[in-house]
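Q: What changes when zinc ion is included in the input?
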Amino acid sequence: MIKYVIGLLVSILAVAFFRAVSGLLTNAVKDAMQPEAKPGSGAPPPSEASTRLRKCKTCGTFAPETRMLRHSTRDAEIFFCSKECEKKEG
Ligand SMILES: [Zn+2]
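A: The predicted holo structure follows.
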């Protein structure tokens, strides 16, 4: 009878041990297989395509279009680097 109980305990322990080991192995494999998480890698860099350099009509300074004062005329667009240049040009 006691042999039976010991055998049962040993088998239970063996199963528990096997499960623990296989669980660790599974986790290790999962960690190895998973690619590294790269936070923020999906966000593309801000596009500079729309930011073109424009020449100030008055002083000839080049500056990004978004930072310049724009005057649309019938034929073209005129850019000024500052209010002062805008005034000078009239
Ligand atoms: Zn200017």
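Observations recorded in class: The radius of gyration is 36 Å.
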